[in-house]
Amino acid sequence: MSETTRIAIIGVPIEIGTSEPGALMGPAALRTAGLIRTLADLGHDVEDAGDVAPDTSGAARGLPAVARWTRALSERVTAALEGGALPVVLGGDHSLSLGSIDAVLHHCRASQKPVFVLWLDAHADFNTPDTSPSGNVHGMPLAALCGEPGFSELFADQDRPFLDPTRVHLFGLRSIDVGERALVTKARVAVTDMRAIDEFGVVAPLRRILERVAAEDGHLHVSFDIDFLDPGIAPAVGTTVPGGATFREAHLIMEMLHDSGFVGSLDVVELNPFLDERGRSARVLVELVASLFGRRILDRPTPVIEAVSAQPVRG
């Protein structure tokens, strides 16, 4: 990611992957909260590519319905990547990552560039139709992308590249179903749960992830679910899990991701404005995305305030 980045904003007003209505309003809320203006003010070349609008004929819910969104979004994200832009996909429920990451995998296959995924989320989203207690597809995208059975109808390309689960890192995990726990363990998905963050902070585990991406010269896709944050900070989410990341921890993660220069694509998902408080959560997300794209409180050459020698007060 350079100081001036071409950014393609793609809205995905999807909520059929969840049972909680309201997520389809997420892209509009982020635009209203000033996301595009904020990124442009940082000096980036920002194009609002509008919202994905798939064919809505056929089944209204379940895998066939999600498949239409997956294929339509994959085409849009592929076009952005091939045009040299960094896609920022606004949701919408987390099933949209099926389309965004599918596009990244296809784009990177030609250059044999490995794809890494940083999954900032309270949940593992590694269920299958057989393990999911709810049947909601927003809890299944990683399992589908990593090649678990039961998802063949989702993707247009039956010869599609699979996501390597050992290059997936669940960060901020604090809720996992019994069946998906077994799948995550078997697939050797890396996990930094909130217990580890409480003990060691976010810097050391995130630095290890970034070092691995650097060593393999990989493409880093960041998928940011609003429930990664503590609901006291961002309440506009239908799958509330107490004990999430603080505002400052999330900012530090975004600042480190920007400094790394490795982020090649981004999802911002599960914002449900119907559950928000006067747009509070949308504004928090805009601030965090701005940090990922270079907003700073202080330029790094400036000493941090605590490190500046105290000057005597003149009376």
Secondary structure: elements and pairs:
Elements: E1 6-12, H1 26-32, H2 35-41, E2 45-51, H3 62-82, E3 86-91, H4 97-111, E4 115-120, H5 141-145, E5 168-173, H6 178-187, E6 190-193, H7 194-200, H8 203-216, E7 219-225, H9 247-260, E8 263-269, H10 280-292
Parallel strand pairs: 1-2, 1-3, 3-8, 4-5, 4-7, 5-6, 7-8
Helix pairs in contact: 3-4, 8-9, 9-10
What does this structure look like?
The chain is of the alpha/beta class. 36% of the residues lie in helices and 16% in strands. It has ten helices and eight strands. It has helices spanning 26-32, 35-41, 62-82, 97-111, 141-145, 178-187, 194-200, 203-216, 247-260, 280-292, and strands at 6-12, 45-51, 86-91, 115-120, 168-173, 190-193, 219-225, 263-269. Helix 3 packs across helix 4. The longest helix has 21 residues, at 62-82. Residues 307-315 have low confidence and may be disordered.
Which features does this protein show?
315 residues; alpha/beta; eight-stranded parallel beta sheet; 10 helices; 36% helix
Low-pLDDT stretches are: 307-315
Structural class: alpha/beta
How many beta-strand runs? 8
Largest sheet, order of strands side by side?
2-1-3-8-7-4-5-6
Individual helix count: 10
Radius of gyration: 19 Å
Cα distance, first to last residue?
A: 49 Å
Mean pLDDT: 92
Global shape? globular
Oligomeric nature of the chains: single chain
In percent, how helical is the residue content?
25-40%
What percent of residues are in strands? 15-25%
User: What's the SSE pattern?
Assistant: EHHEHEHEHEHEHHEHEH
**Main sheet characteristics:** 8 strands, parallel
